[in-house]
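Today's session is about reading a structure prediction critically. Students often jump straight to the picture, but the first step is always the sequence itself: look for stretches that repeat, for charged clusters, for runs of hydrophobic residues. Only then move on to the predicted structure, which in these notes is written as discrete structure tokens rather than atom positions. Here is the chain we will use throughout the hour.
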Amino acid sequence: MTLAEITSRRLEKVLNQDKKDAPTQILAMLESDIRTLLQNYFAIEDISINLSVQNGKYILSTTLSATHLKTIGIVR
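Below is the predicted structure for this chain, in token form.
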């Protein structure tokens, strides 16, 4: 086996692993964005966010307790 073949196989493994890891990283970013969004509207005491992929569908469940809604300048 040549060095080029070894390098090619190694690169293929890295790329395949990146494909597998990408959904995990995307889900982490989505959870962070959802948390930030909710913090813009609620004075959060406790929050639990669970985002997963099941049978090709994204499932989001969240539980949140807040002391009050935050005042937003455009809402009267």
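Discussion point for the tutorial: The chain has one domain: 3-69.
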